[in-house]
Design goal:
about 5% strand, mainly alpha, about 50% helix
Length: about 150
């Protein structure tokens, strides 16, 4: 992200000048210290909800300005807290071994619930494994996005 759009206000403090700007996955902009304050005010064990749309914030992407000034003494603690937040709620990727085993099971002729005996109900275990593999791949992609925008 380059910067918040002109005239955009922080959704928490409603300040015109967003300091240490971060964009949430719901596309709303926040001052870094404001959104960290919202998170620390609530439960630190679950993601904060956006003050505007109430969607869970699972990813905070720093603006280009926040990324460039991350070594400044006033900004470094905010950026560290945001990185901690993203580490907890952005979805850590699972090991490649787990993904490989899931995909191997999908293509293997061995089934826990064979389709020949149970018909369509036998596809249930394949569908569950496919959903799990999809979740692993999605989490890995999200981690790549977090790493790409955190630098």
């Amino acid at each position: 992200m380059t910067a918040p759009p002109r005239g955009e206000r922080c959704a928490v403090c409603r300040g015109v000048d967003i300091s240490v700007p971060h964009q949430a996955n719901c596309s709303h902009w926040f001052c870094g210290h404001c959104i960290v304050g919202v998170w620390l005010h609530g439960s630190v064990l679950r993601p904060s909800d956006c003050p505007l749309c109430r969607r869970p914030i699972t990813l905070l992407v720093p603006s280009e300005v926040a990324s460039l000034l991350r070594d400044e003494p006033e900004i470094a603690p905010v950026v560290e807290r945001v990185e901690q937040y993203n580490g907890r709620f952005a979805g850590a990727p699972h090991s490649a071994i787990q993904v490989a085993l899931s995909l191997l099971y999908l293509v293997s002729p061995i089934d826990l619930l064979p389709e020949a005996v149970l018909g369509y109900r036998g596809l249930l275990d394949d569908i569950v494994v496919f959903i799990i593999a999809y979740a692993y791949i999605s989490a890995a992609y999200r981690a790549v996005l977090v790493a790409r925008h955190a630098t």
